[in-house]
Write a structure and sequence with these properties.
The protein is α+β, with helices and mostly antiparallel strands and about 350 residues long. It has five helices and 20 strands. The longest helix has 14 residues. This is DUF1996 domain-containing protein.
């Protein structure tokens, strides 16, 4: 179902607003091969990421001595007090001649209208009942960057949606990860863009700020963007549910299929050279003081200033300007001879 009427958009706005969730834009801080969560201390990590958030992001980020809230001087996210870092893999188009091109991104529409950002993603913090905000040093990972089996992914938590317009506000479908949303990246001729959704676990063991696999200290308590259900006894502490949304503008590649692979393979791959089942997201907490807890307790909503929590929404020109140079310098735009994996990549 395609939601194009003003009435449908108004209904969506009402339902989201009633839930009182934070939803805000984050522009790209940098696109590079680093990953302080999975590959701490390494440059030219196995695959490329797009990183958003606080500009203290670096290759180590040892939680013993790195607090993004205190070390970052700016953030590429809309709320001034949010110095967290959020990152995902990057979507590429693989042409039949073997070259690769990074898929461009656009802002994402919603109840506030178009969110303005330079690449990056939208972040949600969705509470269900009383929630406990993350603690300094908290970090986690959703998804599996090595997975090739769609059956091993819960479609209710990590999914892709075929967007039938290049207008991000011309809604297709209903709530995230429902209906015809798929684990694989859709390639239908009607798909002008692809919306990627990554939903994180909302239950915590209450003890460990991280775990060796960056996942065992947290647990899912349901599916979809609901804030999660009742937490299991093993992970009794209810967290705000984090969700990422990304809009990949595939329209140019969809319009001209002369460069598509002739063997029928899906030309849209993430930077691991794998498809949708390998989609994943990383999170390192970095809100200032107790602002996130106050935002949840006081039912702060969307991307608006919220005096009760002391959070302030920055103008797009401010958060778009928060960038940093690549720590692992290499070309990532234009047509590339290979994906940025292994040695430094070169242009085609």
């Amino acid at each position: 179902m395609q939601w194009t009427s003003l009435a449908a958009v108004a209904l969506l706005a009402q339902s989201v607003s009633a839930q009182n969730m934070l939803r805000f834009a984050c522009s790209q801080l940098v696109v590079e091969r680093t990953d302080p969560l999975v590959n701490p201390g390494a440059l030219y990590t196995p695959h490329l990421h797009q990183i958003v958030g606080g500009n203290s992001f670096n290759i180590t980020m040892d939680p013993a001595n790195h607090d993004p809230a205190k070390l970052s001087t700016c953030t590429s996210c809309q709320f001034k007090e949010d110095k967290s870092n959020y990152w995902t893999a990057v979507l590429f188009f693989k042409a039949k001649n073997g070259t690769y091109h990074r898929v461009p991104q656009v802002g994402n529409g919603g109840p506030q209208g178009h969110l303005i950002q330079n690449g990056g993603l939208d972040v949600y913090y969705i509470p269900q009942g009383k929630v406990t905000a993350f603690k300094p040093g908290f970090r986690m990972l959703a998804g599996n960057a090595a997975n090739t089996d769609a059956k091993k992914v819960n479609r209710g938590n990590i999914c892709h949606r075929c967007w039938q317009s290049t207008n991000d506000n011309q809604f297709t479908g209903a709530q995230p990860c429902s209906g015809s949303d798929s684990v694989d990246v859709p390639t239908g001729t009607q798909c002008k863009m692809v919306r990627q959704t990554i939903i994180f676990p909302a239950c915590w063991d209450g003890k460990n700020l991280d775990s060796p696999d960056h996942q065992s200290h947290v647990a899912y308590s349901g599916v979809g963007a609901t804030g999660g259900g009742a937490c299991p006894a093993s992970h009794p502490v209810k967290l705000p549910q984090i969700m990422y949304e990304l809009m990949w503008n595939t329209s140019t590649f969809m319009a001209d299929r002369s460069s598509w692979p002739t063997d029928g393979t899906n030309p849209f791959v993430y930077s691991m050279n794998l498809g949708g089942p390998a989609a994943h997201g990383d999170y390192v907490f970095g809100w200032e003081g107790d602002t996130l807890q106050k935002a949840m307790d006081n039912r702060c909503n969307l991307n608006r200033d919220c005096a009760a929590a002391g959070i302030h929404a920055q103008q797009p020109a401010v958060y778009n300007a928060c960038t940093k140079p690549q720590q692992a310098p290499e070309e990532v735009d234009g047509w590339l001879k290979a994906l940025p994996m292994g040695e430094m990549v070169v242009k085609a």
